[in-house]
Amino acid sequence: LxxxxxxxxxxxxxxxxxxxxxxxxxxxxxGFPDFMPDARLIECIxxxxxxxxxxxxxxxxxIRLREHIVEKVERLYKANYNPETEITIxxxxxxxxxxxxxxxxxxxxEVIVFEPAYDCYAPAIKLxxxxxxxxxxxAPDYKIDWEMVKKLFTAKTKLIILNTPHNPTGxxxxxxxxxxxxxxxxxxxxxxxxxxxxxxxxxxxxxHQSIARYPELFERSFIVASFGKLLHATGWxxxxxxxxxxxxxxxxxIHQFNVxxxxxxxxxxxxxxxxxxxxxxxxxxFFQKKRDFFRDLIAQTRFKLLPCKGSYxxxxxxxxxxxxxxxxxxxxxxxxxxxxxxxxxxxxxKNPDEGTLRFCFAKKEETLQKAFEKLIKV
Length: 378
Ligand code: GLN
Hints:
The protein is about 40% helix and about 15% strand. The protein is an alpha/beta fold. Glutamine binds near residues 11, 13, 30, 31 and 167.
């Protein structure tokens, strides 16, 4: 078979989660909570099924859910999307990203990707015949030098992928970053795909810099969000994409023939729940407690903490412990010490291995405590 993705293997998340299960290790690798979603939310989903929300949803998604999103985005980011034409509910963030890329990337188009980068971007671009133009960021602060980014621009630059708060590094874009981006893209046709699935998990009173806040960028951007992260239910695979109508039209042309429409009772149940409970202000507080708890523990080990401003990931370096490759070290951590993490080199196309691991702290305190009791022995 002439593989369309010859260099792609199984995702590091599947590999490390399987390894954690095989060795009965504490799984801080793949990003998902080990606690239940709100019982009220589950009731709302059950009620939706019982009350008959079981057939196809509208192609673009449950209108009450789309209206809720519009209202939230207006309240938080002062942006106006039309629920009829500019929001589509998707089967998770990854599908939204894939569909957005499919909608605009032609063979030969270049896409600027900041690395370390979430692992679904590059394969999607390649499958579409696009070219990944990686811009490498490094520890400890992974700061973007926008003047250097400009040097990657060519006549073929089609799109820039952003991710804030960032997976895996937990960095966030600042108003200065955005100002630089506005300046750089002014008078160009460059599009933006902004992966904001961790928008509600941001710490130390920082404000999420959604691209939706900036009219100059709004016009050229797809924004992707996730209910899995918001509701502690990653397995429900439900998220959404927002974009101005001219872009959303193209998005839907593909969505309708790939997914057609997303799980009906989930959408109805989530809409009911979110219209009853204002959960948004609590999420960052909830995860900041976990971040602080985990950081205090890790500070007692030989791992060195990197900054974490958002997301539910904490990166550490192990250079003082070992000079092994990060994948080798991560495997040994599972086998010999019983804790699974993600080696950060998996997020780079050219594998700069800085001896960095990513831990997920979306876990019960007792899970984090147990992991600490193992990590202190390393
Ligand atoms: N977003 C999750 C993470 O970063 C993984 C999701 C997946 O396995 N596809 O760990």
